[in-house]
Design brief:
Blueprint lengths: L4 E4 L2 E4 L12 E3 L9 E6 L3 E2 L3 E8 L5 E8 L13 E6 L3 E8 L10 E6 L6 E4 L3 E2 L9 E10 L3 E11 L1 E5 L11 H8 L9 E4 L2 E4 L2 E4 L8 E5 L3 E4 L10 E4 L7 E5 L1 E3 L2 E3 L3 E4 L6 E4 L7 E5 L2 E3 L1 E5 L7 E4 L2 E3 L10 E3 L2 E3 L4 E4 L6 E3 L1 E4 L3 E5 L4 E5 L1 E4 L4 E5 L4 E7 L10 E3 L4 E6 L1 E8 L9 E7 L5 E5 L3 E2 L7 E7 L5 E8 L5 E6 L5 E4 L11
């Protein structure tokens, strides 16, 4: 048994087990704590901006770090609004200070214990020369010596605080595929919800997980394997005081053992029971990155991504899939050549999906009401299958490099429109229908000893359309092979020929139907053949 392990990058400022904040502000409370045995409490007898509550620390690097602190008040009405800085986090470096307005009577979800946060990369609401001069100076976030908070009160009241830390990340690793031993979000919450480790990065309320930090899944340490499987969960990245590019979910592994990560499950070839991941603010989207090649397997099955920044996958593998997912109001997805199938991209405010090469594995996908549906940054001949475009405005396709791009489409009920191509690289694009021409029930062989050849020519002038060996297993005739070719024209007469040693040549003239050509060769033994 290898149970999941929760890890983080948080550093304690104070766990409030002692009355050791500057000036002895606050009294120990042994009954109201959120973590450990004690918290600190103070009673304010009047309204107004109250004195700062600070904890001195050794000079610490808080550059681009979140400050996390647990606070509860007697009632929300005692705080001023957030705009008036009802609740503020503060740092000092010995010369300068900075304050962020983290909440107030109109924005706090409850008067009860809440972990508030702010990131020092966000410009503070107040800053200047300590202790109170509001000017252009900011502290050196790489050498912070005090961390704390203050309140601006509308009326008198009681404030309690506990467990202040700084950092950015919560993560989980290890676990096995044995039911009950998988790494899950609930495992993180079990640790977070315990009395000893109230980190405050991931919280849960009414079945929804709320994140106000970065999430890591997997281990970069050699020998530490990971098996993560979670289903039917909802994750919301909170509208906290963090930079626009802060929130992320990252899959990671190591080269010496297995890392397998699944959001949802695959049933009968379809993705289902996936995670719903949402950014509460459009200005603070999240990234999901699964590009680490040390990840052995991943599956994003039946997931919904709402207001994501970028979803990044990796090169094609049969055990790395993005199936039956919805990507809504999100930035450009970067799948590399990985599998993207049965997915819907809707409401993208810019590009929805990037196709990295002609060897892409994107199919059976819809683009709905996107500003630009499909971005193709190369010039070549590319085939798409069952890829449909609805209401995209203004563009179905952006071709972003110089040169000629040809898009051959097959089985598209609503193919991309040539009138809705954006040539941002100065190139040109042709979009045309493509069908598949198949000759079945053919053996394989090495010429000339075991002569095998399949060909298709135009009946009108014998222009060659296909001339190749049968080299793909025939899904309808298990002991045979087939030859196939994409072609962009229907309604013309063609001559089909197949030759095989020991049999008379098979030949048929046929008009290519709208859905393509699928012909099964009929073999008659050659009476003149001598083995």
């Amino acid at each position: 048994m290898v149970l999941p392990v929760v890890f983080h990058d948080l550093t304690d400022v104070s766990l409030c087990e002692l009355d050791d904040w500057d000036g002895g502000i606050g009294a120990l409370d042994t009954e109201s704590q959120i973590q450990g045995l004690n918290c600190l409490t103070i009673t304010y007898t009047g309204a107004g901006l109250r004195a700062v509550n600070m904890k001195s620390i050794s000079s610490a690097v808080l550059t681009n770090k979140n400050i996390y602190g647990w606070i509860t008040v007697a009632r929300l009405a005692m705080l001023e609004t957030a705009a008036n800085g009802g609740l503020r986090f503060r740092v000092e470096d010995g010369t300068y200070f900075a304050e962020w307005y983290v909440s107030g009577s109109d924005t706090s979800p409850t008067a009860g214990w809440t972990c508030y946060t702010c990131n020092t990369a966000v410009h503070p609401n107040r800053h200047g020369t300590a202790p109170e001069t509001d000017d252009t100076n900011e502290p050196n976030y790489g050498a912070i010596t005090k961390v704390g908070f203050r309140v601006n009160l509308a009326i008198k009241g009681i404030v309690k605080w506990d467990a202040f830390r700084y950092g950015t990340t919560i993560g989980i690793k290890r676990g096995t595929s044995t039911p009950g031993e998988e790494a899950t979000l609930e495992r993180i919450w079990t640790v977070e919800n315990g009395g000893d480790y109230k980190y405050g990065v991931l919280n849960k309320f009414e079945g929804v997980f709320f994140l106000q930090g970065k999430l890591l899944i997997g281990s970069t340490t050699d020998g530490e394997d990971t098996y993560f499987l979670d289903k039917s969960c909802v994750i919301v990245f909170k509208d906290a005081i963090v930079p626009t590019n802060f929130y992320s979910i990252t899959f990671q592994g190591n080269a010496t053992t297995n890392t397998k990560i699944y959001f949802g499950e695959k049933v009968g070839g379809s993705g289902t029971s996936g995670l719903v991941i949402n950014a509460a603010s459009s200005g603070k989207p999240f990234t999901l990155t699964a590009s680490d090649i040390n990840i052995t397997e991943y599956g994003l099955y039946g997931c919904t991504f709402y207001q994501a920044s970028t979803v990044t996958l990796q090169a094609y593998s049969t055990v790395k899939e993005f199936l039956d997912c919805s990507v809504i109001k999100s930035a450009e997805m970067l799948p590399d050549t990985g599998i993207v199938k049965n997915c819907t991209f809707s409401g993208a405010l810019g590009r929805a999906l990037r196709m990295s090469s002609i060897s892409h594995n994107i199919s059976d996908t819809k683009f709905v009401n996107c500003q630009t549906a499909l971005h193709i940054p190369f010039s070549d001949i590319v085939s798409i299958n069952n890829m449909n475009f609805y209401g995209n405005n203004p563009y179905d396709v952006e071709h972003s490099v110089i040169g000629t791009l040809t898009i051959n489409y097959t089985n598209c009920a609503s193919p991309p429109s040539g009138a809705k191509v954006n040539e941002t690289g100065g190139g040109s694009t042709t979009i045309q229908s493509s069908v598949t021409l198949i000759i079945r029930k053919v053996k394989t062989g090495t010429e000339p000893t075991n002569y095998v050849r399949c060909s298709i020519h135009k009946a009108s002038d014998m222009t060659e359309i296909m001339n190749k060996d049968a080299d793909v297993a025939d899904d309808q005739n298990s002991t045979y092979y087939k030859a196939s070719q994409s072609y962009t024209t229907t309604g013309i007469s063609v001559i089909i020929r197949a030759r095989e040693k020991g049999y008379l040549p098979f030949e048929q003239t046929i008009v290519i139907p709208a859905g393509g050509l699928d012909v099964t060769a009929v073999w008659i033994v050659d009476p003149n053949y001598q083995a």
